[in-house]
Amino acid sequence: MRTDFQIIQAWIDPQSRVLDLGCGDGSFLKYLQEHKQTLGYGLEIDPDNIERCVTKGINVIEQDLDKGLSNFVDNSFDTVLMAQALQAVHYPHLVLEEMLRIGRECIITFPNFGHWRCRFYLTQRGKMPVSKFMPYTWYDTPNIHFCTFKDFEELCQQKQVRILNRMVVDQTHRGDWLSRLLPNLFGEIAIYHLTR
Amino acid sequence: MPEQIPPDSVGLVEPQLAIFNTPLELACGQTLPHYELAYETYGKLNSNKSNAVLICHALSGHHHAAGFHSMEDRKPGWWDNYIGPGKPIDTNHFFVVALNNLGGCHGSTGPNSVNPATKKLYGPEFPIVTVKDWVNSQARLADMLSIEQWAAIIGGSLGGMQALQWSIDYPERLKHAVIIASAPKLTAQNIAFNEVARQAIMSDEGFHNGWYKEQNDYPKKGLMLARMVGHITYLSDDAMRQKFGRELRSGAINFDFGAEFQVESYLRYQGEVFSENFDANTYLLMTKALDYFDPAKDYNDDLVAALSHASCQFFIMSFTTDWRFSPERSKDIVDALISAKKNVSYLDIDAPEGHDAFLLPIPRYRNAFKAYLARIANEVKANEN
């Protein structure tokens, strides 16, 4: 299992209700279903991923996050999760608000644009970073809203969101001492555990 | 005519008749003392009877869902795209049961059957049947076939409503409900279309207040009109444009009221074929069953409360251009199921064909359908051993 998921799964209670925004092929929901007996639903728009979820026996709902989440009732989930999709939605702040309305707790992971490699790339080449980890050019990328740890924490502060846990990991999803010391510089992926 | 039966067809099939002598109480308050259901089966029932799948038909459907009745058949059953060896509802794994509902005109007890109380045809006196009544009659058919629990109940449109009602009324008797291009209740617009269709039939002079058989007559024009209106609503604007455009039959306009545009002659032809094969009283009954369907009504109009009784898993699909049973209505079911803490998956298939899409071999629809049914087949297999 991906190391970010290993970290996140510890924050999810057995038998709880989980909504996974942008659930991909449903692997994580499958893990939670098998190990924590959660009642999980994934939202996804990619047809191939949806079919993979169906095959796996995961509850998958075809729904575009950018069209809102108003069909979900207030506080209807224990955890609303969004892994590596914040940067791809049109209005991250609205999605964050909706997640906190629907779920008791929220978990969000996103790539940190403040990482030293991004900073280095931009200052050295004067171009938007393209890497193995983020392989898209600026014009055809699904990632339209990059932010840094600092940016995200400012948003949380503005919205009076309480941060329960926060972790940073590198590309291989391991946390080292450098990223713990200077997360905005050395952390590649941010993992936030939030509540109202 | 099929010169030879395709390898992925269920082949030549024969309809059967199930006879019930236990009276069936109907929602309208009347009782059917005796009734018969025409049905077909495809595939083999396994030893622990866990691989049975029920197919519920839509408005003008019947029990002939797949295969051919004879080598002279022009067309296979109405859902042959989806039922057969290797197809989504794979008869190598499943025992498929398809029936004609009560009130139908293709072999089940309906307006053209003899009323034992009067010894003449029921005609317009056949009681109005509801989706709930159909589900009850289908449960008795399941009893007769020794099927305690369906691996899945599958239906599109009005068929999907039956699958939904099953999940509420007989939760322990199905493991999966597959509900395609359906709705938890009709919209006013939908009821309006049905009313136009009914008025077309009832105002035809050939209708004779429903006693047309006795007069050796039938409301041909009314049935044609009803079908034409229906047909328009089953297609999307795009689908019609692509199929017919504004193409003229003779290449030029004639300044008269004949069928000048291709779409006009198509509708007339479809209406005509339908009027010759479908019974007017049955059409009235079936559209009423559609209008009346509202499982939430028994639960203070709370669909979540109604669905909280269900214990099966749900697979729901809609089509983007379906405006008669729009994706929003399917989403209503999905949202209620999530609120009721039920297992549900939902796909909104991008398809230009409108409501009719549910009968067509659309690749994404087919693949997802196949993936879901393969999962059910695996569950069946795992429980066999």
Labels describing this entry:
A: 196 residues; Rossmann fold; 7-stranded mixed sheet; 8 helices; globular; B: 385 residues; alpha/beta; Rna Polymerase Sigma Factor, Chain: A; 2 domains; 8-stranded mixed sheet; two-stranded antiparallel ribbon
Give an overview of the whole structure.
The complex is a heterodimer of chains A (196) and B (385). Chain A is of the alpha/beta class and 196 residues long. Helix content of chain A is 34%, strand content 23%. Chain A has 8 helices and 7 strands; from the N terminus they run H-E-H-E-H-E-E-H-E-H-H-E-H-H-E. In chain A, strand 4 (77-83), helix 4 (92-102) and strand 5 form a beta-alpha-beta unit. Chain B has 385 residues and is α/β, with parallel strands linked by helices. Chain B is 35% helix and 14% strand. Classes of the chains: A alpha/beta (196), B alpha/beta (385). Chain A binds chain B through residues 17, 39, 41, 47, 50-51, 53-55, 57-63, 71-73, 76, and chain B through 315, 331, 334-335, 338-339, 341, 343-348, 364, 367-368, 371-372, 374-375. Chain B: Substrate binds at residues 227, 356. Chain B: It comes from Spartinivicinus marinus. Chain B: This is Homoserine O-succinyltransferase.
